[in-house]
C-alpha cells in the first residue's frame, strides 16, 4: 500500500488541538504579514506586518506570545509559503 500525501496532511491536521495558535505568514520581498487563527480557523487578533530582519522576527515572536497569553493557548504552529528565497531568513531564524 502506498502512503498518500493526503494521508500525511490529514495526520498533521488531526494533531492540531484547541490549545494551538495557528499562524500563517505571507512572504513578500519587503514586508511580511502574519495572521493567526484558532484550531477551528477563527481569526484571533489583528494581523501583523513585519520586516525581513531580526527586529521584525522578534516583533513576530512577541506578537505570537502575546496572542497565546491572551487566549490561554499552549503552543503555536507557524506556516509560510516558500516564495523565491524570501522565506529563508525567517525559516532559519
Could you explain the architecture of this structure?
The protein has one domain (about 20-90): Nucleotidyltransferase, domain 5, CATH 3.30.420. The chain is about 35% helix and about 25% strand. It contains three helices and four strands, in the order αβββαβα. The protein has helices at about 5-15, 55-70, 90, and strands at about 20-25, 30-35, 50, 75-80. A four-stranded mixed beta sheet has the order 3-2-1-4, with helices on one face. A hairpin with a 4-residue loop joins β1 and β2 (about 30-35). It is flat.
Keywords:
93 residues, alpha+beta, Nucleotidyltransferase, domain 5, 3 helices, 26% strand
Shape: flat
Q: Roughly how many Å apart are the termini?
A: 38 Å
Strand content: 25-35%
- The domain tally reads 1
Count of DSSP H/I helices: 3
What is the H/E string? HEEEHEH
CATH fold name: Nucleotidyltransferase, domain 5
Return Rg in Å. Answer: 14 Å
Instruction: Please provide the count of β strands.
Output: 4
Mean pLDDT: 90
Global structural class? alpha+beta
Quickly give the CATH architecture. 2-Layer Sandwich
In what order do the strands lie side by side in the largest sheet?
3-2-1-4
Low-confidence segments, ≥5 residues, pLDDT <50? none
The proportion of residues forming helix, as a percent range, comes to 25-40%
Q: Characterize the main sheet.
A: 4 strands, mixed
Oligomeric composition of the shown chains: single chain
- CATH C-level category: Alpha Beta
Amino acid at each position: 500500500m502506498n502512503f498518500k500525501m493526503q494521508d500525511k496532511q490529514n495526520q498533521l491536521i488531526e494533531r492540531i488541538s484547541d490549545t494551538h495558535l495557528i499562524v500563517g505568514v505571507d512572504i513578500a520581498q519587503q514586508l511580511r504579514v502574519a495572521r493567526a487563527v484558532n484550531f477551528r480557523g477563527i481569526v484571533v487578533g489583528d494581523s501583523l506586518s513585519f520586516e525581513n530582519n531580526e527586529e521584525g522576527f522578534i516583533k513576530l515572536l512577541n506578537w505570537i506570545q502575546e496572542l497565546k497569553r491572551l487566549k490561554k493557548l499552549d503552543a503555536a504552529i507557524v506556516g509560510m509559503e516558500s516564495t523565491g528565497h524570501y522565506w529563508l531568513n525567517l525559516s532559519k531564524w
